[in-house]
Each structure stands twice: as structure tokens, then as C-alpha cells.
Specification:
It contains 5 helices and 9 strands; from the N terminus they run ββαβαβαβαβββαβ. The chain has a single domain (about 35-205), classed as 3-Layer(aba) Sandwich (Glutaredoxin), CATH 3.40.30.10. The two termini are about 25 Å apart. By secondary structure, the protein is α/β, with parallel strands linked by helices. It has helices spanning about 55-60, 75-95, 115-120, 135-140, 180-190; strands spanning about 40-45, 55, 65-70, 95-100, 130, 145, 150, 160, 200-205.
Amino acid sequence: MQGPGHGQRAASSAGGLNHLLSPRLSMSPPMEPGSVAPTFNLPNANAGAGSDSMSLADAMGENGLIIAFTCNHCPYVVGSEPRIEGIAEKARSNGIGFVGINSNDPVMYEADSWDNMVKRASKGMTYPYLHDDSQQVATSYGAERTPEFYLLASDSSIQYRGRLDDSPRDPSHASTSELSDAIDDLISGGSVRTPRTESIGCSVKWKT
């Protein structure tokens, strides 16, 4: 199966914390807590979870949705994978949907190609893994890094944006649990105690 817009790929390398933001980000209003999340409709590389393509409405659970901007090769994502699966399970058990979106340039970063997304998803990923080949979704959200998380209420309002915890590469050093705490606050009906944190990870790999 091939996703849209796939041609010859160049070799990739892992990115770091230093990042060049897309110039298109300045043209979109920032999607911060309190904003209404932009909609999307993207192809899904995970045949084991969700439909062939999914919209925000398709992914939304009874009590909300978590959108994770992620990828295949970033060491911060790789180091967080078991915790991302754990938070996806916690979300689902509380009526909150969960999707991953890969917006990295698949030409310069072959590891993030559609075929490699399919391979990664087949290794036990439990949530839809959507491909933002045009990068329009990442641009509309103002996403900056992988991994970066947006927690939405059922009315699509953003309740939390930022990191899962403070040590994505090494779980033994994590001393916070902001995304999990935000889920607890949302489900309890209260205000999210910490609605905004800075994500820690690789830059989104923008097309040139």
C-alpha cells in the first residue's frame, strides 16, 4: 500500500532539539489552550487501528481526543514509545481518542516514509497513525517537535499542549506527568492545572 505523494527517497538522520520552524507557521494563529483545534482528514498507516483515512471527528472519543505529533526515527519518540502506548491506553479507558500524526518530510527523511510508517505501526502500535504529507496539519496546529501532544475536550477545544513528561528519552529520569495529569483534570471536570508546557524532542522536519 502506498500513501499519497511518495517518490524516491533520500537518506535520513535523526534531528535534535535545535529546530527551524516552517515559515508557514507565522501565517497561522497559534493553537494554544483555549483555541478550537483545526480539523483534518488524513490517510492512516495503521491497518490494525481505525479506518483507511481519519478525520478529527472520526478520532474523537466521547470525552475528547489526544493528538500526538510523532514520527519514526526521532530518539525522543523512540525513548517514549512505551509511555506513549501507556497514555494512549489511559486515554481510551477514559473515553478519549488517541491518534499519532507524522508530518516529517518523507523525502529528506526516508525513515518517515509511508512504507516505514506502515512497518512501525505493524509492530504493535495500538492507535491510528496518520500521515500529514502536505504538512498542512502540523502548520495549522503550530506543531514544533516530536513528540508533541494536544489534549482536546469533546468540543474540540484545546485543553493542554506540550510534553508527555520531562524526560522523553529516558523514563528513569522523568519527574513529571503533565499529560496524564491533564487527562485526570479533564475527566474530573475541572480546569487543567498546567495547560501549557514546552515539548521536548526533535524538530518537525519541514520541506524546503
